[in-house]
Design goal:
The structure holds 2 protein chains of 2 kinds. Chain A is an alpha/beta fold. Chain A is built from 7 helices and 10 strands. The longest helix of chain B is centred in the C-terminal third of the chain and has 44 residues. A 6-stranded mixed β-barrel of chain B has the order 2-3-8-5-7-6. Chain B has 2 domains: 185 residues, no CATH class; 178 residues, no CATH class. Classes of the chains: A alpha/beta, B alpha+beta. Chains A and B meet through helix 2 and helix 3 of A and helix 1, helix 10, helix 11 and helix 13 of B. Chain A: One of its GO terms (cellular component) is membrane protein complex.
């Protein structure tokens, strides 16, 4: 059996101290293999977002082990986690989170800027990423000039422009109508077929149906894990 | 792999991002740096004008000549106090100083009066200065044309005179004057020389508005006594003025029969001393004004910090995005720091520009020449950059230390 890309063991997370403390995660075990497409579902407060933040190295667990490519993430400091995100992770958010008053091109090339790519290389890669999400013609438009679906596609282009190992999507279709949502999900499936591991938080079963594995959270623990047998037939 | 070239380009990009952000909020940016603009402009203007004033004062004093002792009867500048008026000097005092004091280059007696000069219907009221040819050895004041007094003329008390430029212009309309004869206080006087222009005196008054005659002529024809009111002593460069001053004091005390423990009834000014006093006064004034102006620079820096803190709060989400994408703390820090520094440097540049305009407008009013003091311009600019770093650091660090999750959730 091959080593999983991500391995969580006994992850706990609590907020606050003493009597006011709140246990968001109460021991989460999870293995994610390279190339997986995992949807995380659950009611609000079930711990799914906290898990996603920990998986994306945006947050640190209070206890337990997180191994990414065999390395202990929980031991890394703030900047080391930032460098890990820069190299291996791409993020797509519910609220798109594009820089305002900044062109699609400049939004997409932002991660490359932090990676230190040269300008011509940045432009080329950003253009290619915009092309893959079908927005090549819109490269000089600012978020205000783009529709919600287009903005989310720019955000996806920004997430994949660095050719990350893992794409983390937090309710990527939460602000979109069903037609736009399908487009986004097809894009994510497409990137997954090209080898990118996709982790997605959603509360919509239709969107979760695109994933190969669906993890259900309840009260800070994993309630059950479903496998979508018909995966690959969908989309 | 990251190369230095790429780093340079990254910071170039950060620089461009900062410029873009400043341009997006042009009015706000301008108001932010207004304090720096005013501070820099004030500091540069004050220091430049102050230094120009100091230089002008020094210039005027050195035009009087250095290493000159001026001996007057009485205490201090005024005659001061009650009691009998201290006696004037006479020619014996002048000769005594000349012969008995070591290190004396030349000694010129002086007696002054005023009168109206008349030439072919032109009238000009002026100062009449009776002295000897030593007057031109004590101080550097060359003749523009003509000659100085001959010793025969001095001994005979002849009515010959050397005129200043102002008298030349007003009495002779700048025309041929040497060999001409004009009337002054009832006597006829031959012009034998014209002085070169000297300009305004340090304490007001036109130094060129003067008629110089042999002292004997002035004493005999005008003042009617043998008194000498001022003695000018030129000190040899090889001797110290302080030492010569002390010897002259001893000599004059003896000659004027001043008893042990009694105060001098004359005083000796060292022009260098006056120069030093005035210079240190103007320098002190310059420093005080610069200090006041510097306070506004600090206030300006606080203004920058204020706006940068607001900007950090406003852009919390943006910072969250950058952090999520993989920006390390230092990169976020740099972005905000660069923005603050670019802002304050721009403010500094505008301030320097304003200062040049202010100096150009004010220097004619203050009667000092227009000057460009490169040093203070550079210092003020560097200070504005440093202010950007110092006051930009706190907000920048705050941005850099934001938690990415909280920042992303920020509305």
């Amino acid at each position: 059996m091959t080593e999983p890309l991500i391995r969580l063991r006994g992850i706990t997370k609590s907020y606050g101290e003493g009597a006011n403390s709140f246990q968001a995660l109460r021991g989460v075990d999870m293995d994610i293999m390279k190339g997986d497409f995992v949807a995380v579902m659950g009611a609000s407060g079930s711990g799914k977002s906290t898990t996603m933040n920990i998986l994306g190295c945006l947050d640190v667990p209070s206890g337990g082990e997180y191994l990414f490519r065999g390395h202990h993430v929980e031991e890394l400091n703030r900047d080391q986690r930032a460098l890990l995100r820069r190299k291996y992770f791409g993020f797509v958010f519910q609220g798109f989170n594009l820089l305002a008053r900044t062109s699609a091109m400049e939004n997409v090339e932002l991660p490359l800027l932090y990676r230190g790519d040269a300008k011509t290389e940045r432009r080329r890669a950003a253009m290619e990423a915009l092309d893959r999400v079908g927005l090549k013609e819109w490269w000089d438009h600012t978020p205000a000039e783009l529709s919600g679906g287009q903005q989310q596609r720019v955000a996806i282009a920004r997430a994949i422009v660095t050719r990350p190992e893992v794409l983390l999507a937090d309710e990527p279709t939460g602000n979109l109508d069903s037609a736009r949502s399908r487009e986004i999900m097809e894009l994510l499936s497409d990137f997954n077929r090209n080898g990118i591991t996709v982790l997605m938080v959603t509360h919509e079963p239709e969107m979760a149906a695109f994933a190969r594995t669906v993890v259900h959270f309840r009260d800070g623990v994993i309630e059950r894990i479903d496998s979508n047998a018909q995966h690959g037939a969908v989309g | 792999m990251r190369s230095t070239g790429l780093w340079a380009e990254m910071y170039g990009t950060v620089f461009l991002l900062a410029l873009r952000s400043i341009r997006r909020h042009l009015l706000r940016s301008f108001l932010t740096v207004l304090g720096i603009v005013i501070g820099v402009a004030a500091v540069v203007t004050m220091v430049t004008l102050g230094n120009a004033t100091t230089a002008a004062v020094q210039n005027q004093i050195s035009s009087l000549g250095t290493n000159i002792l001026q001996i007057r009867p009485g205490q201090g500048f005024g005659r001061g106090g009650g009691g009998p008026r201290p006696p004037n000097f006479d020619m014996d005092d002048v000769r005594a100083i000349e012969q008995q004091i070591a290190g004396v280059k030349a000694v010129a007696p002086q007696v002054q009066t005023s009168g109206t000069a008349i030439f072919e219907g032109a009238n000009w009221s002026t100062t009449i200065n009776g002295t000897s040819s030593a007057y031109f050895q004590v101080q550097p004041w060359p003749l523009a044309s003509g000659r100085s007094f001959l010793s025969s003329e001095e001994q005979a008390g002849k009515a010959v005179c050397i005129i200043g430029n102002t008298v030349h212009q007003n009495l002779f309309r700048g025309g041929e004057a040497i060999g001409q004869r004009f009337r002054v206080k009832g006597i006829s006087c031959d012009v034998i020389g014209i002085l070169s222009t000297r300009g305004q005196a340090g304490f007001g008054g036109d130094q060129d508005d003067v008629v110089i005659m042999p002292i004997k002529t002035v004493q005999r024809r005008f003042t009617g006594n043998q008194d000498v009111s001022v003695i000018l002593v030129g000190v040899d460069d090889a001797y110290s003025t302080t030492q010569v001053q002390a010897s002259i004091t001893d000599l004059l005390r003896e000659r004027r029969k001043i008893g042990e423990g009694k105060e001098d009834n004359f005083n000796i000014f060292d022009t260098k001393q006056i120069s030093d006093t005035l210079t240190s006064t103007t320098t002190l004034m310059t420093r005080i004004m610069a200090a006041v102006a510097a306070i506004s620079l600090i206030v300006g820096g606080i203004g920058i910090m204020n706006i940068m803190l607001v900007s950090v709060t406003e852009r919390t989400r943006e910072i969250g995005i950058r952090l999520a994408i993989g920006a390390v703390s230092r990169e976020v820090l740099m972005q905000f720091l660069v923005e603050a520094v670019v802002l304050s440097c721009l403010g500094g540049l505008i301030g320097l520009l304003l200062a040049q305009i202010a100096i150009a407008l004010l220097s004619p009013l203050m009667q000092v020449p227009w000057t460009f003091d490169a040093q203070i311009n550079i210092i003020a600019f560097v200070i504005s950059a440093v202010i950007g770093v110092v006051f930009g650091y706190f907000p920048a660090r705050r941005a850099a230390n934001l938690n990415p999750i909280d920042a992303l959730r920020h509305e």
